[in-house]
Amino acid sequence: MRLLIMGPPGAGKGTQATKIAEFFGIAHISTGDLFRANLSEGTALGLEAKKYMDAGEYVPDSVTNDMVRDRLTHADAQAGFLLDGYPRTVAQVAELDEMLGDETLDKVLVLTADTDEVVGRLLNRAHKQGRADDTEEVIRRRLEVYEEQTAPLIDLYSSRGILVSVDGLGSIDEVAGRIHAVLNA
Ligand code: ADP
């Protein structure tokens, strides 16, 4: 099973991704988590990524693509994976296509959420976790970047016939229930 989950910042992707990956016994590959892990270990990659993350911008493809390419070779990803936060640009889709070859994605799940709702959720999370990329200005920029660079992937994957969409508004269990319904699980 090879899946991708996408959706605007604050739609609850990370939470649902963890549950889906556990349910199917597949690797959860979150580029945001990989960047944050690199940062807390103080690696060169982490320090480079921080500059962009703190501003709400995307980390350059040259950094991101190589990190994912490497992660996909790990043993736990061989039985399947859930990509979370990658690909996020049309150029990254082309790169992923090349990495996967014939082993194409089975489904792309989009979590939808209204802008005011996600801004509220992100500000709330910022207070609790103190994430540097969660000031209101940065949040608005992240949403803009999502609309410009990532929303076009919805049409792209829809034209491949593998897109499923779920309303991300509701309790964690409600949303999880909808996801299971569209994934036939
Ligand atoms: P969220 O789920 O809240 O959108 P993530 O944890 O997925 O945030 O990602 C945090 C940040 O990491 C992004 O705002 C971006 O700067 C960087 N990032 C994550 N994935 C990618 C990617 N595929 N390409 C470029 N930058 C990325």
Description:
This protein is α/β, with parallel strands linked by helices and 185 residues long. The chain has one domain (2-183): 3-Layer(aba) Sandwich (Rossmann fold), CATH 3.40.50. It has nine helices and five strands; from the N terminus they run E-H-E-H-H-H-E-H-E-H-H-H-E-H. It has helices at 13-24, 31-41, 44-53, 61-71, 90-100, 115-129, 136-150, 152-159, 172-182, and strands at 2-6, 27-30, 81-84, 107-112, 163-167. It has a five-stranded parallel beta sheet with strand order 2-3-1-4-5, sandwiched between helices. Helix 6 (115-129) crosses helix 7. The longest helix has 15 residues, at 115-129. The termini are close together. Bound molecules: adenosine-5'-diphosphate (ADP). Adenosine-5'-diphosphate (ADP) binds at residues 9, 13-14, 31-32, 35, 52-53, 58-59, 64, 85-86, 88, 92, 133, 142.
